[in-house]
Design goal:
This protein is an alpha+beta fold. About 70% of the residues lie in helices and about 5% in strands.
Amino acid sequence: MIKKMNLQFFAESEKTEKPTPKKRSEAREEGQIVQSKEINTVVILFASFLGLKIFGQFMHEQLLELIKNILNQTNNAETFLNPNNLMHNFMNILLIFFITVTPVIIIAFFSALLVNYFQVGFLFTSKTLQLKLNRLNPIDGFKRIFSKRAIVDLVKSVLKVVLAGSIAYSYVKNNITKIIQYSNMEVFESFLGFSNLLYGLILRLLMVLLLLALFDYFFQWREHEKNLMMTKQEIKEEYKQAEGDPLIKSKIREKQRRLALSRMMQDIPKADVIITNPTHYAVAIKYDQSMYDAPYVIGKGMDLVAENIKKMASESHVPIVENKPLARALYDTVDIGGVITEDLYEAVAEVLAYVYSLKEEF
């Protein structure tokens, strides 16, 4: 016997829907964001490299001054190593070294802030630091080791090594003549020559790392979007939470309608007249000069409600007058509690005059 399967269940359990703004906001609060550490590394390295290029001359001069200062002081080792002077000398050396490297440190620091801001924006959350027991699960840990992310990281690491090695080999091979020439020059000229070659090599390596970082960012973005995908049922549940359960809302509206109808029926005995068509519509009219300058509607209804209004009117001895056009016009144009419009003054006045004349006869 072949059992029928409910395919709708599978359709609603598959993550086929794009994430809602609420889902994205909750994920961001949980620390689930698109951020590539590779881009951070490349930008910080490039900024530091640029800082060395800009402040290289200054750093070179400062370091030479530091070395000269140390050599001059160590000529008199007894004075330099004197306990009274040792701390002072050490602090001077440390201060000069700190001044030397400060420009590059500042550039690297601000570049790290900027690259994180452009990737993530301003975000502070402590939820990523909370202990999650599921991370201690060895089965989940084993799955992470052989996950798609782990495979991509492995491929990326291998590419880094292969590409970096290939670029370094090719660069050295193409500049081998210069390397030999610089080896035979004076120390300062040799240092400048090798520095320029090193700058060229680093720049090429950074360009390769940047391409890999962009690939890593694209992969992380795709995985992030995939993880945020929602099922149709999740969309429905979120809508219920945001807008309220439609069933509950309909029940509330029904209860409100019943309460309004009950209050209206309590006012029917106060009416001066009920105008009907006579089967489908019924409108209760009252005229009270202390309330309004014109008659107003204290109740109205159609079909079953109209029958209940007429029944309540009969029990309360409220006159019922049949006037099909007037009943329909009042029902369509005047709300409960509203004053009748000027175009209906004359017709309503005639009905009220007729009702008042009947009362005077009795």
